[in-house]
């Protein structure tokens, strides 16, 4: 194995160049709307929102986001557990 092969990060087979999937988990819809509007002009960003923290893990497994933005203070389940 060459040095170049060892330094190259593994890229998932379903990755498309410049595609960034963002999942926001937040119980406040107004926050999601603000983030959605900020990202709306970015053609390479696919925005997803989950309002129910109990559904965050199944949603993340389904869409396989690049980035997860997580509210730390939510009812029933906080963003740390």
From TrEMBL:
Domain Response regulatory: 21-81
One protein family per Pfam: Response_reg
UniProt KW Nucleotide-binding keyword: no
Listed PROSITE patterns: RESPONSE_REGULATORY (PS50110)
Keywords (A to Z) from UniProt: Phosphoprotein
Residue numbers of 4-aspartylphosphate PTMs: 71
KW Phosphoprotein (keyword) present: yes
GO biological process: phosphorelay signal transduction system
PANTHER family: RESPONSE REGULATORY DOMAIN-CONTAINING PROTEIN, STRESS RESPONSE REGULATOR PROTEIN 1
Protein name: Response regulator
């Amino acid at each position: 194995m060459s040095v170049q092969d060892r330094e190259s990060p593994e890229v998932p087979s379903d990755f498309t160049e410049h595609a960034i999937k963002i999942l926001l988990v937040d119980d406040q819809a107004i926050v999601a709307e603000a983030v959605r509007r900020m990202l709306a002009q970015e053609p390479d960003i696919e925005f997803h929102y989950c309002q129910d923290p109990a559904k965050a893990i199944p949603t993340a497994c389904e869409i396989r986001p690049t980035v997860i933005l997580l509210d730390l203070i939510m009812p029933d389940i906080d963003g740390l557990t």
